[in-house]
Amino acid sequence: MIKLKHIEAIRNGDFTGLPISNTSTAVNMTGSWKFFRPTLKPKKSPCLEACPLHILIADYMQEFAAGNHLNALEILRENNPLPAVTGRVCPHFCQSACNRTDFDEAVLIGDIERALGDLGLTQPYSMESQECQEKAAIIGSGPAGLAAAVFLARSGVKVTIFEQSEAPGGLLRYGIPAYRLPRRILEKEIKNIVESYSIDLRCNHKIKSTDLDNLRKEYDAVIAAPGLTQSSIPETWPETPTVKGALELLAAISRDEPIPGQDFVIIGGGNAALDTARSLKRLGKTVQIIYRRTIDEMPAYPDEIIEAQSEGLLLREETVIEEIIDNGRDLSLNLHRSRKNGDRIEAGDFIETITTDFLIAATGQESSGDFLNCNPELLKAGDFAHGAASVAEALASGRKAAETTLRKFGRLPDDSITDQETQNLPPITFAALHLNYYSKKPALKIPQLDEQTRSDNFSEIHLGLSLEQLEIEAERCFHCGSCTTCGICWFFCPDVAIAINRESDNAESQILFDYDHCKGCGQCAEVCPRGVIEMEEDL
Amino acid sequence: MTNNNRPATGKNHFTDDTNWQITNAELMESGHMACPGCGASLSMRHVLKILGPETIVVMPACCWAIIAGGQPTTALSVPLLHTPFAVAAAAASGVRQALTAQKKEHIQILTWAGDGGTFDIGLQGISGAAERHEDMIYICYDNEAYMNTGIQQSSATPHGAWTTTTPGGKDFKYSKKDILAIIKAHNPGYLASATIAYPDDFYAKIEKAKAARGFRFIHLLAACPSGWKIDSQNALEVTRLAVESGVFPLVEMNNEGAIEKTYEPENPISVKEYLATQGRFKKITAEETEIWQNEIS
Cβ B30–A497 below 8 Å, yes or no? Predict the structure, then answer.
């Protein structure tokens, strides 16, 4: 029973003898109840896993969405020396692997990369360490050569690139048509690299077999990345001026050389076949592609096939040339329906005989610098090392060669690659994400030049969006496996045992678990959209 | 960690749709006596975040009478008055009158009771307070049984559910009392059902209740891991599925006095799926599940 004297005592702050609580329950160490404790376990996003360059996509998306474009560019460039190029020509393995595909549509990673790359054309590349004594020579200035140069120069190595053509870029310049990769973008990006790292770029400088020993004496390391610059023409085809390789033709178109002839037949189903056909069509030629399997089986990137078809390119699937008759001025081709015989493809029923001015082989590539092949100790990179592959794979191979070289110089610890820490993280699947608090949102639509406007010129087809517009797209990223300090764990903690410190630079201390009071219920792990929180046994 | 040491986006929200602000100030403290995964403690934490420090909590015997901590400790940074089981609404009315006499109308009264103290034992007091339009927010956190005393059946326990007093499952003759209809008959100032598994809906409704005057009633579904026989980490998800299956619809009384849904599941799940998540519905038969499904649709 509370009496008047008690009220008097309360007014004086004296609660003695009264049923009143004025101590916080925080004195109870309820953390001792738990059997499991939440911990932060960052994981590898599927985009990063799919990317040959292991770009920290989930991380730069975070920066990009927040409007910190330059920070995002810096993260992107850590692993990708040519973002404006790859943003356009990479098949974007990352996008195919995106977890958002299982939810609604993949995030347009490629378009964001492209916009960041364009932003970077005027931003010098950053150095990681001071200049050192070592010198390296790189043969070839294609994607692999450039990547090797960037990763070496970034560590202070003095780099010289020898390029046999009149301008740098290799396949990027002479193999990829300008409607996919505008020349000014390529030139600006290469110029930026060369200037940022003071690279000694020597064009019109072909390395012959006799030069190799001198190079080795003069430089501490030599990397060969000459690429596969020649189309391989099937042996059964006649040796005549009306039979050509696709790469030679693409290079000629790239150099604005006049292209004789009107009718062209291209054999092959890869990107080189489509690039050659679409380029010729833009020059007003009559073109058809002949492919022995179905269109669905073409190794070219699906987007390229769709674009080519919408441009009205004639694709003849399941067709083979059984006989080539050299008429001197032109060629007659006997076309047959293809027929599968086990793994082999044979000629089936006769279709028709067609006449063409030129027959173009786009069935494979080979090296022109065979002397380099004879040198087993030579460090190789790019298509020359691993056969024809994507630009991203060529860049990755260049980087690997640079890292091998740096290790040789003792400037990188043994058996370590620079992004090993991320590489060793476990991958995260769609099933491990908790997306109850996300709603479906389709990807942005990227404008394109229509078929009419692009039919007779080499203007870039994809028009791109502004950085501001693309921020909305970046916000769609789930940041799989990367804590964004979104706060959902904090929100749903019934024990007020999670604190978020967004100011902290150290990821480990951005989310703070109060293990003295956490009862280990595990709800934070169940709500974390990115699957970063895991419960582990509390010992 | 390379993967992670980037500054955050700086946005104070966690879903792509949430645009309301959540205060960092906590009026509920750690170290309270709730079981791991308790839905009632999480609900209290956010209700107090919204109502703010100028709130007096009145509560009868219920889980929270224990959760708040034994003397001399308390989990709340606001005044809390414990009352006997049947009289929370009546005691809260008294506190309200005392505050009015002191011209402290701005102070919110939060009457916070479990389903036992609301559906069964406290019902007459609620009816009286509602009839007098006492200026208070009455929140019933419904964990669907007398959990604190050892999981005995209440009139909020759904049919088919195991409790220690209904070991074979609550008889299907009895359905969960329609508390919203009872309160609606008193013409309250605000009336809604909510759960913290839907934060946007939850925050909007508590904010509305805060802004309204008179007797305001909110029916909260709060998961009880031990009483529902679920793992503590699934408490939130099970609550969410109660809504997605239509077992616990999120509703609100509109200006015309009619009860309408505030959330319609995009891809509703079946009652069967909801029941399968919990051990307390283990003995429910296929026919009973069908009856339940038909009651909803």
Answer: yes
Give the span between the Cα atoms of A535 and A35, in whole angstroms: 9
Give residue A449's Cα distance to chain centre. 24
Alpha helices, H only, chain B:
39-51, 63-67, 88-101, 123-131, 179-184, 199-211, 225-228, 235-244, 271-276, 286-296
Q: Which of A65, A421, A520 is nearest residue B9 as measured by Cβ atoms?
A: A65
pLDDT tens per residue across span A177-224: 999 999 999 999 999 999 999 999 999 998 887 788 888 899 999 999
* Cβ atoms of A365 and A247 closer than 8 Å: yes
> Which of the residue ranges A76-80, B17-21, B253-257, B264-268 would you say has the lowest mean pLDDT?
B17-21
Domains of chain B, with CATH numbers? 39-296 (3.40.50.970)
- For residue A412, pLDDT beyond 80: no
CATH 3.40.50.1110 fits A234-365, yes or no: no
* CATH superfamily assigned to domain A129-229+367-418: FAD/NAD(P)-binding domain (3.50.50.60)
> Residue B9's closest chain A neighbor by CA?
A66
With contact defined as beta carbons under 8 Å apart, do B281 and B172 qualify? no
DSSP-derived letter for residue B118 is I
pLDDT at A1: 62
pLDDT band at A417 (very low <50, low <70, confident <90, very high): low
Provide the ipTM: 0.93
How far is Cα A231 from Cα A212, in angstroms, rounded to an integer? 25
Structural domain boundaries in chain A: 129-229+367-418, 234-365
